[in-house]
Design goal:
This protein is mostly helical and 254 residues long. The protein has helices spanning 8-27, 35-38, 43-59, 64-74, 80-94, 102-109, 114-130, 134-141, 147-156, 158-163, 165-173, 181-193, 200-209, 215-230, 239-248. It has a domain at 1-141: Leucine-rich Repeat Variant (Alpha Horseshoe), CATH 1.25.10.10.
Amino acid sequence: MSFYDLSDEERILKKEEIAGVILRSVTDNLPAIILPFFNDEDTYIRKAAYQAVSKLYQDNVTLREPLILWLIGLQENEQENVRQTVVYAAGEIAAKDFPVVEAILEKGLVDAHHSVRNAVTGGLKNAGNKNPAALAFCERHITSSDPETRRLVLHGLELRGRTHPQEIIGLLRMLQFDKNKRVWDMLIHVLGQISYKKGCFAFVSKELESWENNDIYSAFAKEAIEVHGRYEKFSELTQAQVINYFKEKGVTDR
């Protein structure tokens, strides 16, 4: 039975059960007893587990160091679901205390399984949305020789960029001439994503006008128009206003 097949009361009890097992696993150094939850096929069971890990870290100062060592040990597990859950737990902790989980996120970037690597992006999104300390990590890895690392870190900047585009635009600029298609496509995606909140479109558009790669601006125009149509209820500008803006600049996308 999956997590959302349970009643509200049963979900509360399940969360309490998971939290209890995590506490015992950390305090008694019994990592194996948490594996049924960390390796559960149900995404929401695993989510309940990594959120419980974060809560334990925040609520129990004396358990913080052993808990981080516990996570580091679990990251060696052969099951990708376990390693993914570890990385998501690290992302939750990173929202308030980034340095203690930095090594876990770095190891996740080069994990053999795509679901674990993608969890790093999720962790960076969660952390960066609340904690600017994530930016230094992204800056260090965004010019990696590995295009997959560049793409993952770039995507991880997205949520921070929606509210603080001025903090990430310099990092994005570093990839304006990237020759890898997946990195390029992600760059355009992120530029579109950071353009639709209040005050963001004018800033991003003006910044891109100063970039040396002229191909960026036309690609951004197409993406921004699509994003403003998809998220029009949440955007400062309507899609029509964005289309007219680019027309006035002589930029056409369609």
